[in-house]
Amino acid sequence: MRKYVTSVGLEVHAVLLTVSKIFCKCRSKTGSEPNEDICPICMGYPGTLPNINKKVFDLAIRVGLICNCQINRCIHFDRKNYFYPDTSKSYQITQSEMPVAKNGYFKLPSNGKIIKIERIHLEEDSAKMFHDEHDVTLIDFNRSGRPLIELVTSPDLNSFKEASEFASEISSVLEFGGISEAKMNEGTIRFDVNVSMSESDDVFGQRVEIKNLNSLESLEISIRKEEERQRKIIESGGKVKRETRRYNESEQVTELLRDKEENCDYRYFCEPDIPSICFTGMEIEAIKNQIPLLASERFIIYTEKYKLPTISAKTILSNKCISDFFDEVIKFYGNYKSIANFLLNEFLRRFKECSYKIPFSAFFFAKLVEMIDKGVVSCLNAKEILRIMFESGGDPLEIAKKFGFILVEDSKIIKEIVENILEENDKMVKDYKSGKTNVLGCIMKEAMSKLRNAQPQDIKKQIENKLNKK
Ligand code: ADP
Ligand code: MG
Ligand code: ZN
Description:
This protein is an alpha+beta fold. Helix content is 40%, strand content 19%. The protein has helices at residues 55-66, 160-176, 216-235, 281-290, 295-305, 310-316, 320-329, 336-353, 362-373, 379-392, 396-402, 411-424, 426-433, 439-450, 456-469, and strands at residues 5-15, 70-71, 74-75, 78-81, 91-94, 101-107, 114-124, 128-131, 137-140, 147-153, 189-198, 208-213, 243-248, 253-259, 269-270, 277-278. Strand 12, helix 3 (216-235) and strand 13 (243-248) form a beta-alpha-beta unit. Helix 12 crosses helix 14.
């Protein structure tokens, strides 16, 4: 098989984490009832005027700074003119000539490769169309006017793996930077991929754009399928055509959306209803100082300062909510490893079941882990306490008392019960004395069932004491 260089450039669209939309006061929210968060401005009524939400500059500049970009001191908006039912004004307010940021780069953690960032700009999201089974199209305007950033990379990614890593890393940056929820499954981050193939490093092939991918899986598959398709065209002597395609998820193939040759002219011009905006160096500096710790920075703290194993640190950092919770918990109890252990096992499972909600405080979680470490409750019962906390919240100590989970520390009680068991199981004792020490397991099991609130090691000690004396 002949060798080709694959080049991929990504266009990332992320919904910014603001309370209201970019040009009106409507809520910017995922999951409202259809057309619940709308007004004449975001529905594009003639005669309305956009009123810019200043928060979007802060968030967009943050991304620019994180991606090592040049921040434009003065920016303006432009109109991109086209007709489509989800764009009822017949134009989208976006940025063409003077975007928020340009000429940056982002390093891929796995191989240190530099991916150039061409530009980062602000724009408004379109409404969303639904095609129902009767061939009727419905439009939901909740999404119309939600603030977006578009981040455009150079075609520096050379495989579906690198593209997928970039997509996943940039999502994490946006999430930890407090810039976007960046949830692919909810559409708050979406990708367009541009793929081309050539026979040498120094020329690019013709690019094909695949629109609107919303999972890492579809991103990877569509790039691989596109590579296959382009390879076939080239090897059969044909020429790859510049076109826009979409990914058909159920069939796992890309299909033609439109030919670029018939590409329309968007007739960009400066948006007359929004004045240019300028930022001072001090304002940009202040934004820089507000950027929260990103996952990569927290990773260093977790592994070097808290000495957590890499895999634990990575798992905690796979979700900002878990990482924030961990950071809270350790303020109340300083045994990082115990907290990480309990968090990553029992907690994580319940957390997923509870659709990523934590119905109790970091303080109570810290208290529960401390109770295990101090031997107040067994690890087994702590899991049960956590289950109750996830169901109804509450103080773990109170729960332990209420349900009788406090460990028996009184060795007298343990001794008494062990003695009873040994008396009732004469044969086992004899077996043990004649060298069959594996009966110890059976005796342990029996004792554990009667002493649910005692530490196994205390029980074992008592049994061995007794057996070796008799
Ligand atoms: P458009 O509006 O046409 O999509 P953009 O400038 O927004 O243009 O995006 C162009 C994208 O295409 C960028 O991500 C860029 O890296 C990518 N790209 C440009 N040329 C090629 C190429 N030959 N192969 C792969 N990707 C390319
Ligand atoms: Mg594009
Ligand atoms: Zn509105």
